Amino acid sequence: MTHDDLPPMTALSTLSDLRARGMIEQLAGDEALENLLEAGGATIYIGFDPTADSLHVGHLLPILLLARLQRRGHTPIVLVGGATGMIGDPSGRSSERPLLTTEMIAANVDAIRPQLSKFVSFEGRNAAIVVDNGDWTRPVGYLEWLRTVGKHFTVNYMCAKESVRRRLEDREQGISYTEFSYMLIQANDFVHLFDHYGCTVQAGGSDQWGNITAGIDLVRKTRGAEVYGMTLPLLSTAAGEKFGKSAGNAIWLDPRRTTPYQFYQFWMQTDDRDVERYLKLFTFESLPSIAEVCAAHRAAPERRGAQKLLAARMTEVVHGQDALEDALRATEALFTRELSGLSDEEIAAVFSDVPSLTLERAAFAAGLRLAHLLVQAGACVSRGEANRLIQGGGVYLNNRRMDADRTLSESDLASNSMLLLRTGKKSYYLVRFA
């Protein structure tokens, strides 16, 4: 992404636009921070702990905050936590994270870097910077750490922070000294970035408020300077579920973990009660444009116009135009017509998480019956049940309703080697022929 690829900025002030989009939860230094952001040229950082080899949609809001601020002329710093990732942040957790090895952390850092480049520009003026807090944390000895960082924080101060206090109140779980020290590492990060990059703003999720204010305090005590902080809301759906989960699974940015089709469908399934909020939070559409789209959506919600815009914008920015077109083509094939004209690869990507069965092609010559295949695929427990389901109009072959049991042939394949069974509206079964 380059600056030339980005949509024009809104006429609203920076904080006014962020507030109107619902992106601000808390601010440290309201008026001074607003003046700083309007002047341009500030340096802002957000940290991401590399606990997996991919970011997921739960990371999108802070990433997009950096992208919005970069468009306003500020320099974003993406801090990848090679040090903090080895400790585990207690914020928002009821139990301690499993510790990762140095090798796992390094591999995750390498995998995350290219994903970030889809959102912020690493070229031109105010180019984004990626840093690893392991680079300046690992060389510091324990005694030096206690003298230069630890002495500035009382235990009472640290225990008063909500992320620590909640864990201390849980008598069964508690908090380890390892996680207790996380706050100090993050606070020291702010000092390092202030010293070496002139960074004066730290942002993060609202669960990071205690860590962010600890960093502000440490900069003030050790450098005599005023720095600032802001937090983003932690999102949940209108139904009260944690944002970013689909059937209990995270929606990843890596296409090997979540296919572009699955990614597109995640956004398409957005509840009508959430879609306007998500368009404001996650897209660069102007607020007037979003209001217009949502007014049209309210007039004809069955067309899902707002969801289509949201899904298209998010899939394009994360996976590219070609992947978006593939997802649109697959969606059209699956939901508006008989399943045909797709490749094995496209069908496999769309149905990567449905039950599947592999048979020899010789099964066709042996006289493969539809009812028998339903039993083999696990869609029915007996041929009798399969026949009753077929006769009741509840069985589809490649999205074509079947009204009677019959012998299948290779001409029934939807692609070179696959066919799709469906019972009811949503129960899919993929059959491969080797």
Task: Walk me through what this model shows.
The protein is α/β, with parallel strands linked by helices and 434 residues long. The protein contains 21 helices and 13 strands. Mean pLDDT is 89; it is low at 1-8. Strands 1-6-5-2-3-4 form a 6-stranded mixed beta sheet, sandwiched between helices. It has helices at 14-20, 30-39, 60-71, 84-87, 102-116, 134-137, 142-148, 155-160, 162-169, 177-180, 182-197, 209-223, 260-268, 272-282, 287-299, 305-319, 321-336, 344-350, 362-365, 370-377, 383-391; strands at residues 26-28, 43-48, 75-80, 129-132, 201-205, 228-232, 245-246, 249-250, 356-359, 395-397, 400-401, 418-423, 427-433.
Task: Give a quick summary of the entry.
By secondary structure, the chain is of the alpha/beta class. The N terminus is likely disordered.
Offer a few descriptive terms.
five-stranded mixed sheet, six-stranded mixed sheet, 3 domains, elongated, disordered N terminus, 21 helices, 434 residues, alpha/beta, Rossmann fold, Tyrosyl-Transfer RNA Synthetase, 46% helix, Structural Genomics Hypothetical 15.5 Kd Protein In mrcA-pckA Intergenic Region, Chain A
